[in-house]
């Protein structure tokens, strides 16, 4: 396993690089979603209706101040709205607007077409193995980071 870990680190670096390239290419094609905010918009859309920004910060693993700035940008682009919380008049909840849902659907279609082109030569078995391995890998990273956070908190 020792020799595999550095190789996986290199592949992860490559994945981050091509992910950045995907975002830049999508942005260059005049996406309705500002570069870097697609993932957050998708997270808001996946959260239960009427979620707060603090829930978004927890779900996305981002600092609340980062989420606040990103939500402000999404609101200014008309992709997300802040609506009064029906259970707490002092709070607001985040809702993806009709414009945001359309932009999200169009962007998801673009990513799906791009991935379909990239994976066109792969067999169904290769696709299934890759999907399974990638899911297992991301879960393992989440677990490792959570365990590390718990250990760091216990040491303090």
In terms of quaternary structure, the protein is single chain
Distance between the termini: 31 Å
Question: Which class of secondary structure composition applies to the elements?
Answer: mainly alpha
- Write down how many β-strands occur, each being a DSSP E stretch of 2 or more residues: 2
Number of helices: 6
The value of Rg in angstroms is 19 Å
Report the mean per-residue pLDDT as an integer: 89
Largest sheet: 2 strands, antiparallel
What proportion of the residues is helical, as a percent range? Answer: 55-70%
**What fraction strand?**
5-15%
Order of helices and strands: HHHHEEHH
List low-confidence stretches: none
Strand order across the largest sheet: 1-2
Overall shape: it is globular
Description:
- By secondary structure, this protein is mainly alpha-helical.
- The protein is 69% helix and 10% strand.
- It is built from six helices and two strands.
- It has helices at residues 4-28, 38-46, 53-60, 64-76, 98-118, 124-155; strands at residues 80-85, 88-96.
- A two-stranded antiparallel sheet has the order 1-2.
- The model has no long low-confidence stretch (mean pLDDT 89).
């Amino acid at each position: 396993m020792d020799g595999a870990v550095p190789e996986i680190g290199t592949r992860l670096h490559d994945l981050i690089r091509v992910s950045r390239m995907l975002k830049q290419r999508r942005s260059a094609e005049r996406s309705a979603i500002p570069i870097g905010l697609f993932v957050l918009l998708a997270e808001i859309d996946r959260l239960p209706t009427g979620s707060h920004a603090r829930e978004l910060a927890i779900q996305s693993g981002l600092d609340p101040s980062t989420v606040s700035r990103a939500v402000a940008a999404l609101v200014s682009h008309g992709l997300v709205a802040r609506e009064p919380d029906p259970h707490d008049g002092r709070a607001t909840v985040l809702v993806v607007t009709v414009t945001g849902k359309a932009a999200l659907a169009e962007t998801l279609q673009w990513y799906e077409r791009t991935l379909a082109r990239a994976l066109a030569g792969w067999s169904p078995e290769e696709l299934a193995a890759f999907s399974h391995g990638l899911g297992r890998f991301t879960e393992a990273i989440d677990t490792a980071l959570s365990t590390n956070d718990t250990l760091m908190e216990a040491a303090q």
